[in-house]
Amino acid sequence: MLIKTSHDGFCHPVSSEITSQRVYAGRRDLIKLMASGVAGAALTSWASREAEALTPRPGKLAALPGARSSLAGAVTMEKLTEYKDASTYNNFYEFGTDKADPAVNAHTLKTSPWTVEIEGLVKKPARYALEDLLKLSAQEERIYRLRCVEGWSMVIPWVGYSLSELIKRVEPLGNAKYVEFVTQADPKTMPFVGSRVLDWPYVEGLRMDEAMHPLTLLSFGMYGEVLPNQNGAPVRLVVPWKYGFKSGKSLVKIRFTDKQPGTAWNKAAANEYGFFSNVNPTVDHPRWSQATERRIGEDGLFAKKRKTLMFNGYEAQVGQLYAGMDLKKLF
Ligand code: MTE
What we know:
By secondary structure, the chain is an alpha+beta fold. The chain has one domain: Alpha-Beta Complex (Sulfite Oxidase, Chain A, domain 2). It has ten helices and 13 strands. Strands 1, 4, 5, 8, 9, 10, 12 and 13 form an eight-stranded mixed β-sheet that branches. The protein has a five-stranded mixed β-sheet with strand order 3-2-11-6-7. A hairpin with a 4-residue loop joins strand 4 and strand 5. 39% of the residues are buried. Bound molecules: ligand MTE. The site of ligand MTE has 17 residues, from loops.
């Protein structure tokens, strides 16, 4: 995100953001079709991309079904991002800083055996094997918008359950005010751990009420399958009203503390990436506006930028958590 060199920052255009050959060819073909009067047919085929997002794929991952969530705000009816976009346009700096890197490099991540430790200010510290964590509560499907701080967004059907289900089990103590999320940092399997882009491991944090909010999802899958490595296998967080970098991937520790945790991007550039990082179109990043976003997959001829919504559209559900706070100062 910050960035001092041409390799280490969110703000630099990367090769995958420059109009791809596929998109360019699509535009050129559509212009030809319009000239020949068959644009209607082309538009119909564009519409069918929605169905494509969920069609079975060769070599697909293990199924992980979840019952559609009935929680308020948990299922947006917006068009899904195609699986191939959601799994090939990623930020996962442990595997490289280009959006295309994680899909290419993350096959080295070893996701089994996997354990998640719960420690700090809790009555019942625990060490969960992934298999036990998976069964701790019923898996739900939630369709969330994910808005990245860089100005793009996706709509992804995640599978998981509310993090609060796990938190309740371990019984936080009265002085636990924050939750720290520590992610895997293994230089043997993650080629960019050790690079100087960030202070490893990648750490994120939430205030206790944010962590307990039912929309905060502990996620094990997407599109009805287990998570692909590049999306944070085998378990990650998804906090839909915050910029994407708050959603730590490949979690190994969840620690309850009385002090606000030092988080990876905040440590790298405190004036650019605050602790709260709620999606807020009225608070610009120091180097770019946050008022609009580009929906991944809508990069065709008629694509318009979308207006970014306060709390990424989840204001009705989470606005109350921030009542009375100055969100310009506590960005
Ligand atoms: N988690 C770890 N461990 N490392 C990272 O580099 N990138 C974050 C977040 N979680 C990141 C991470 C950022 S910037 C975003 S936008 C989201 O993951 C992207 O998640 P996605 O690839 O599933 O879209």
